[in-house]
Design goal:
alpha/beta; Rossmann fold; three-stranded antiparallel sheet; 4 helices; 22% helix; 31% strand; globular; binds 1-O-pyrophosphono-5-O-phosphono-alpha-D-ribofuranose
Length: 188
């Protein structure tokens, strides 16, 4: 359909980081991980749901032996003010004395990764590091730094490549900035 109104309307999602840049950065991140974990066996722990696209691409560039087990965790409360976390799936693989890397799509207030880190640390892994595709340091509410970061970004509402707005847009091949009033001060 083509008419003046549709032509003039701003696109709902503007490209923030292209598919090509994501691919290149993931190869770089994998290079860092391959250097740091060469010859070691690692348990990768992606956080559902947002991290699934990222980990699916990242894992195929890793050269060291990996095990994979997801944790399901989701914030609840309003979209803009996270009030708490609910764990929807626990780890099934034992991580005691093993090397563990938690994988997430975005580090925002820090509440999710802080809580997951505390939970996994109690299981006494040999090492525990975090890899996030996106970091929004300006939004941090609890102190937490990731060990591996794909892109550090300003406070835009980001969707695509696994990230959602009301469960939509996860399938976009790129990372986009959502053009809507609801994006102001939002978490992702
Ligand atoms: C999102 C995202 C991160 C978390 C980051 O998950 O995937 O896990 O929020 O936010 P934080 O740093 O403020 O804790 P969400 O709870 O929206 O669930 P989802 O992964 O299913 O989208």
């Amino acid at each position: 359909m083509s008419n003046t109104a549709t032509r003039r309307r701003r696109p709902e999602v503007e490209t923030l980081i292209s598919e090509r840049r994501i691919k290149r950065r993931i190869e770089e991140l994998a290079g860092l991980l391959n250097r740091d974990y060469a010859g070691r066996e690692v348990v990768l722990v992606p956080l559902l749901n947002g991290a699934i696209v990222f980990v699916a691409d990242l894992i195929r560039h890793l050269d060291f032996p990996v095990f994979l087990d997801c944790i399901g965790v989701s914030s609840y409360g309003s979209r803009t003010v996270p009030e708490g976390l609910v764990f929807t799936k626990e780890l099934r693989i034992g991580i005691r004395k093993r090397e563990v890397i938690v994988i997430d799509d975005i580090l925002d207030t820090g509440r999710t990764l802080k809580a997951v880190h505390r939970r996994l640390q109690a299981l006494k892994p040999a090492s525990l590091r975090t890899c996030t595709l996106l970091d929004k340091p300006s939004r941090r509410q609890v102190p937490f730094e990731a060990d591996y970061i794909g892109f550090t970004i300003p406070d835009h509402f980001v969707v695509g490549y696994g990230l959602d707005f009301d469960e939509r847009y996860r399938n976009l091949r790129y990372l986009g900035r959502l053009n809507t009033e609801t994006s102001t001060g939002s978490k992702a």
